[in-house]
Amino acid sequence: MVTAIIAAGGRGARMGGHRPKQLLWLGGVTILQRSVAAFDRCGQVDEIVLVVPPELATDGSLASTPDGTPLRVVPGGARRQDSVARGFDASSPSSEIIVVHDAARPLCPPEVIIRTIEAASRHGAAVAALGAHDTVKQRAAG
Fold first, then answer.
1. Within a domain: residue 140?
2. Quick one: which of 19, 74, 90, 110 is 20 to 30 A from 56 by CA?
3. Which residues pair with 30 in a beta bridge?
4. 67-98 pLDDT tens trace
5. Does residue 139 belong to any structural domain of this protein?
């Protein structure tokens, strides 16, 4: 069994907005909906545990997936690691692979999710990473 924990407990404070960035709209749906849909539609995930700010944990609109993968919404903790720990606690005891994803990264291709799950199955653990295509500049003065 494969469980995806989607960490969406942040409040977007560094971004300076008036609402959590995972609730901002991107192409007609929220960033959070895009992240959930990526794991729902990849065909490899048996359950999704969505960890959100405590005040959103009872929001019924968050408790569904486009393709019907079972989804459980749980309140996050004070820090990211606390939120992920709550996601682990809410995961099915029969989970053999647990994938942890940051909800604020909504454009993860399904192929990356699938390859990461397959690698974790083969090797016991795996980390997904994509190369940066942005221009990175360094200044001598810092």
1. no
2. 110
3. 25
4. 999 999 999 999 999 999 999 999 999 999 99
5. no
What contacts 85, CB < 8 A, 6 or more positions away? 77
Q: What tokens were used for 35?
A: 């992240």
pLDDT tens-digit map of 38-47: 999 999 999 9
Q: Which residues span the domain enclosing 83?
A: 2-123
Query: Tokens 């810092």 sit at which residue?
Result: 142
Judge whether 130 lies within some domain: no
Count of the separate structural domains present in the chain:
1
Q: How do residues 100-136 score in pLDDT, each as one tens digit?
A: 999 989 999 999 999 999 999 999 999 998 887 777 7
Listing DSSP states for 87-122 in one string gives HHHHS-TT-SEEEEEETT-TT--HHHHHHHHHHHHH
